[in-house]
Specification:
Layout: H1 14-40, H2 52-69, H3 76-95, H4 104-109, H5 113-126, H6 136-148
Helix pairs in contact: 2-3, 2-6, 3-5, 3-6, 5-6
């Protein structure tokens, strides 16, 4: 086999250069896309959004508990239990947390600090040795919790 019988290597088509360039551009764009969005002024959401029907439903349930406290012989402990159930149901509907038997410590460990603080205040009213005076602060905390997360 002599040099006359050898075949020269095939040349690369210009289409391959274009394809490789496009792939590299796409990879670089994906790499720097978060920086580009940040430079453009896009910010991440402050937290999960709660649908308005969920918010209004739970605000009305809190108002129902508050009006039940305004009767002649209010049962503050029972109202605290009802308010704790409302707050736990809100956590379930708003964030999908299984909160039926959630304690304040469980909520704090899970990173739901606002829910934990609200439940702690309700525990103090629900399990106090003497009859609690009222639930105004706990009702305000529950309303703040629902309003803050919506």
């Amino acid at each position: 086999m002599g040099p006359a019988e050898l075949v020269a290597p095939l040349q690369i088509s210009p289409a391959w250069y274009v394809a490789v360039s496009l792939v590299l551009l796409i990879a670089l764009f994906n790499l720097f896309a978060p920086l580009i969005r940040l430079a453009a002024g896009a910010t991440e959401a402050a937290g999960p959004r709660v649908p308005i029907p969920v918010r209004s439903t739970y605000l009305s349930r809190i108002t129902t508990v508050e009006t039940a406290l305004g009767t002649e012989s209010p049962d503050v402990r029972d109202a605290a239990r009802q308010l704790a159930k409302v707050v736990r149901d809100f956590a379930h509907d708003a964030w999908g947390v299984k909160a039926e038997h959630l304690t304040y410590r469980d909520a704090a460990v899970a990173g739901l600090d606002d829910l934990a603080a609200c439940l702690l205040g309700l525990y103090e009213a629900e399990f106090a040795e003497t009859e609690p005076a009222g639930l105004r602060a706990q009702i305000a905390d529950a309303r703040k919790l629902v309003a803050r997360w919506s």
